[in-house]
Amino acid sequence: MRRIAIIGGGAWGTALALVATRAGAGIRLWARDPAIVAGINERRENTVYLPGIALDSAIAATTEPEIALDGAEAALLVVPAQFMRTVLARLKPWLRGMPLLLCAKGIETESLQTMSELAAEVAADCPVAVLSGPSFAGEVARDLPAAVTIASRDAALAEAFTTALGTPHFRPYRSRDPLGVEIGGAVKNVMAIACGIVEGRGLGDNARAALITRGLSEMIRLGLAKGAEAETFRGLSGLGDLVLTCTAGQSRNYTLGVALGGGTSLAAALAGRRSVVEGVATAAAVARLAARLDVEMPITAAVEGVLHRNLPIGAMIEALLSRPYRSE
CA torsion, points 275, 292, 224, 326, in degrees to nearest 10? Predict the structure, then answer.
């Protein structure tokens, strides 16, 4: 995997292009926006999503997917979860069994599939791994230390992607549980919105710690119902990513929750954001998936109610605090 295609020109796609370059790979990045492509090729900078961070000359960008994929030995799919199906379908004529690393964190709202389940349907001939974990794009792009999980049922594929992307400052850990890794990456965004609401309402650090802990329980219950392994959720893609996203001001989901908790409407809180806040769509998908699998997820249901059913935040908080006492 010395020639890698990066599909997606957002902050995370650009950061992973830098990671792969540092690991010694040649990179072609596909982005739909000509301004992003021009910035990368002419100014060596993604001025839209990662302004101020210099990009290596080994990173070439294009608006043509067939050019990005031509000669590539693997592709990293770094597009929002709700666009993954459309992008995969568009790329399929040029993939031809190419190994794919799926880097989106979410569950498709229409099918309720994880990204690996979706890819198995749309590009069945392509071997698939997933990447998740506590990793803000800006810090990764600046080569600050980070550790992530790369998961695949094919151990050799996970090893190949680990070798292709691993550097002293970007440390992938392998897993054989892609579903668990994906459930962790999706549910933590919903919990981050909940924790942001707690912060915006001034409910204190105790309440946030309780939400993180109970949110982890919800994550594990859903994962087990999907056939994931409980141990996965104690790792980077579960607890690690949950803690980061629920406590850091860099988190888009957390800051959205802060705005909502402070009284801002959802439309106003989303206005002007170029990057997708994955937790908004994922809250609806996770709530529906939990209902389908008969999994109790009260925090998820509360967040979904606020985002999609106009549930007042005061009523959400009251409902959570008035639940029956129970054993952990």
Answer: 100
Query: Where a domain ends, among 156, 176, 196?
Result: 176
Indicate which residue of 92, 105, 188, 226 is catalytic: 188
* CB-based contact 141:14 (threshold 8 Å): yes
Question: What is the reported pLDDT for 60?
Answer: 96
What range does the domain containing 102 cover? 3-176
Total domain count, the chain? 2
Task: Give the pLDDT band of residue 88 (cuts 50, 70, 90).
Answer: very high
Full strand arrangement of the beta sheet holding 128-132: 59-62, 26-30, 3-7, 74-77, 100-102, 128-132, 146-151, 170-175
Encode pLDDT of 103-146 as tens digits. Answer: 999 999 999 999 999 999 999 999 999 999 999 999 999 999 99
How far is the C-alpha of 55 from the C-alpha of 76, rounded, in Å?
18
Backbone φ and ψ of 93, nearest 5° = -60, -20
Mean pLDDT of 186-199: 97
Q: Looking at the structure, do residues 40 and 106 belong to the same domain, yes or no?
A: yes
Q: What is the pLDDT of residue 33?
A: 95
Tell me which DSSP letter residue 73 carries: S
Query: Would residue 188 show up in a list of annotated catalytic residues for this protein?
Result: yes
> Residues with Cβ < 8 Å from 127, sequence gap 6 or more?
97, 99, 100, 152, 154, 157
pLDDT at 328 over 90: no
Segment 40-64, tens digit of pLDDT: 999 999 999 999 999 999 999 999 9
In the three-class reduction of DSSP (H, G, I as helix; E, B as strand; rest coil), residue 4 is classed as strand
| Tokens found for residue 135 | 């990793």
In angstroms, the CA 167 to CA 259 distance is: 36
Q: Distance between CA atoms of 70 and 60, rounded to whole angstroms?
A: 13
Integer Cα distance of 134 and 96 in angstroms? 31
